[in-house]
Amino acid sequence: MKQTINGADFCRLMISAAASIEINKQKLNELNVFPVPDGDTGTNMSMTINAAAADLRKADAPTLEKAAAIAANAMLRGARGNSGVILSLLLRGISRKLKGAEECDGALWAQALQEGVDAAYKAVMKPAEGTILTVARLAAGKAMEAAKKNKDMEVVHEAALEEAKIALANTVNQNPVLKKAGVVDAGGKGWVVALEAMLCALRGEDIVAPEGTAQAAAEQANFADFDTEDITFTYCTEFIISRENNNDPEKLRDFLSSLGDSLVLVDDEEIIKVHVHTNDPGKALHEAIDYGSFVTVKIENMRLQHTEKVMNETEAAPKIAEPEKALGVVSVCAGDGLADVFRNLGVDGIISGGQTMNPSTQDILEAVNKVPAETVYVLPNNKNIIMAAQQVDALTPKNVIVIPSKTVPQGITAMLNFNPEGEVQENVDALTEALDTVDTMQITYAARNSDFDGHDIHEGDYLAIYGSALFDTNQNVDVLLTALAEKVRDTGKEFITIYYGEDITEQQAQTAAALFTGICPDADITLLNGGQPVYYYLISAE
């Protein structure tokens, strides 16, 4: 019976959990009730936790605290989709609770699970019952009860797992959509899969992913030709401060900005984490002590330590464009035509992604950091990307504001209302208000058989979506286009834009436009090649 875990054990638990979610990701994907081909909860959770597994495999005998921090940081940056972000927040809370611990028994593990739940709930605006949050909360609560009777790690974790299974089974009764479909929540199932794999590792029965499923290592930059004379500031200075007062970290950010470059300051409720390149680390530390006690400090001479290890670390620091203007925008979309539309409207950076591949927090962070602006607005254009985008602000010195666009047409309409010379809040209000002025219609295909919302859906059928709801399904796309056009006519919309996807020919698109013109003769209709995958047509009506 495993009584405690150390850093090596924690690595095994996480790697085992990542392997199991990878093995089961398609089953998790198939639990998504809505039958469109972007049911990717399993894929998002797998990519998120495998970011942690990859970094833990490379770690050199980390302590428990270090292993937990490595996992949390990797998952925060690698988080994809709502399920991936929540999973990363669960690990972030666990990491906080394990800070300073050399070993973890069942009592501390129960507290860590609860801390993870608290972190996840704090980040979700309107937590709903019957989701991964419910499963994680009830499991943590059971762990706390079990720890009062027995502090063995394995006993407490097993209690959490058993309660998680019960909670998961009940999700079908807590969510009307799940109940109608007769399935459990996909994210909750993913957490159960992770907890099961961790228990296996505790018992020495680690789950191992089949060959070929491990993520490929990222390409390494070549520093052979790097000239140390190019180093403007000599010392790479990193430190973490324990928050002990209400001093404004923005004042520290301003001071450090004047002292060097490559500044990243992450501020949360408990700590301030700083990375800066400077020629006078003493001044940086002297200023920082006013904000609390140092938890860790690391100073490296980048000229003297021109080694592969040091260079890999400095490469990991985000490359942040110096501000040349006040405001900038990045947008998520898939398809060259849609990307051109956003660029023509003034978007600075395009993040490739959308329905079938949600970009990670790291992907969005990199795009934001490339924009030479003080404030960067992010248009996710997909409800499953909003949470990942909201994590970026804490990872960059730039002011990041997420405009919660759930569709590409919403994002385009928002950009039509963007004023690059306006004030920050003025644009927030204008862009956000614009989202509700456009109706979005989409036509895609059914990824699997389903009985959804009164529709008997067969794999391969065309699906029409109006707003966020399933509008109709048919084996003839023209039937759906006609019904959508009639809906638009009845709502009295005046401006209709049809973006056709990569699987639609120009002739087919012209036929669709003619159909809308015939049914909506008083509307101004525009046809554009969006080039988007998966969705045959994206249609906006204003």
Largest sheet: 6 strands, mixed
What is the strand content? Answer: 15-25%
Widest sheet: strand ordering? 15-14-11-18-16-17
- Summed up, the helix count is 19
- Uncertain ranges: 213-230, 305-317
Question: What overall geometry do the principal axes of the alpha carbons give?
Answer: globular
Task: Give the rounded overall mean pLDDT.
Answer: 88
Main structural class: alpha+beta
What share of residues is helical?
Answer: 40-55%
CA radius of gyration is 25 Å
Question: What gap, in angstroms, lies between the N and C termini?
Answer: 64 Å
Give me the count of strands. Answer: 18
Note down, in words, how this protein is organized.
- The structure is a single chain.
- The longest helix has 23 residues, at 7-29.
- It is built from 19 helices and 18 strands.
- With 542 residues, the chain is of the alpha+beta class.
- Helices cover 47% and strands 19% of the residues.
Q: What's the structural blueprint in terms of helices and strands?
A:
Layout: E1 4-5, H1 7-29, H2 41-58, H3 64-78, H4 81-97, E2 104-105, H5 106-123, H6 132-149, H7 153-174, H8 176-181, H9 186-202, E3 235-243, H10 249-259, E4 260-267, E5 271-278, H11 281-288, E6 292-301, H12 308-316, E7 325-333, H13 336-344, E8 349-352, H14 361-370, E9 373-379, H15 386-390, E10 399-402, H16 408-416, H17 424-434, E11 439-445, E12 450-452, E13 455-457, E14 462-466, E15 469-474, H18 477-491, E16 495-500, H19 506-519, E17 524-529, E18 537-541
Parallel strand pairs: 7-8, 7-9, 9-10, 16-17
Antiparallel strand pairs: 1-2, 3-5, 3-6, 4-5, 11-14, 11-18, 12-13, 14-15, 16-18
Helix pairs in contact: 1-2, 1-3, 1-9, 2-3, 2-4, 3-4, 4-5, 5-6, 5-7, 6-7, 6-9, 7-9, 10-11, 16-17, 18-19
